[in-house]
Amino acid sequence: MYAVIRVRGHGKIIRKAVETLDQIHLNRVNHMVLLPETETTRRMLQVVKDYVTWGEVSEELLARALEAASKHTGEKQVSVAELGRKYGEEPTQLLKALMEGKKKLSDLDIKNVLRLHPPRKGWEAIKKSYAVGGSLGYRGNEINTLIERMLPSQGGV
């Protein structure tokens, strides 16, 4: 499961990238979507690689991100334990089904877009690839550290 985060805004974007960002529902900076690891997804990410960053999200960080940043369709905060009770499954089973692509967020009555904070300590460089020290493009498992920096702080600091 890929976590895809929009890094750059809407100024001077080529038409094909705008259409692709609309298709994957990334309309604002610091929003995150979850996409399956398919060939179609990889091609779409190559089109928008100059505007987003992505990588493989871990299951425990996905649970924290869902608790902190996702909303039900009625703008109500999501709780993974509550989802487990609502759908009659263990929360770990629901997360595993999400990771494997057997369930989607929309199946669980959750909005597809997770609204995150800007990362603590800021973005690296929003016009450079991650491979050369920037913020854009594929980052693999390092997406987990970025998402952690973008989640609201636990202690209120």
In whole angstroms, how far apart are the ends? 31 Å
CATH H-tier superfamily of the largest domain = Ribosomal protein L30/L7
Number of helices: 6
**CATH overall fold name of the largest domain:** Ribosomal Protein L30, Chain: A
Number of strands: 5
* Main beta sheet: 5 strands, mixed
Strand content: 5-15%
CATH architecture of the largest domain: 2-Layer Sandwich
How helical, in percent, are the residues?
A: 25-40%
CATH level 1 class label of the largest domain:
Alpha Beta
Query: How many distinct folded domains?
Result: 2
Describe the strand arrangement of the main beta sheet, using strand numbers. 4-2-1-3-5
Global outline: globular
Mean pLDDT, all residues: 88
The Cα radius of gyration reads 15 Å
Helix and strand sequence: EHEHEHHHEEH
The secondary-structure class comes to alpha+beta
Low-confidence stretches: none
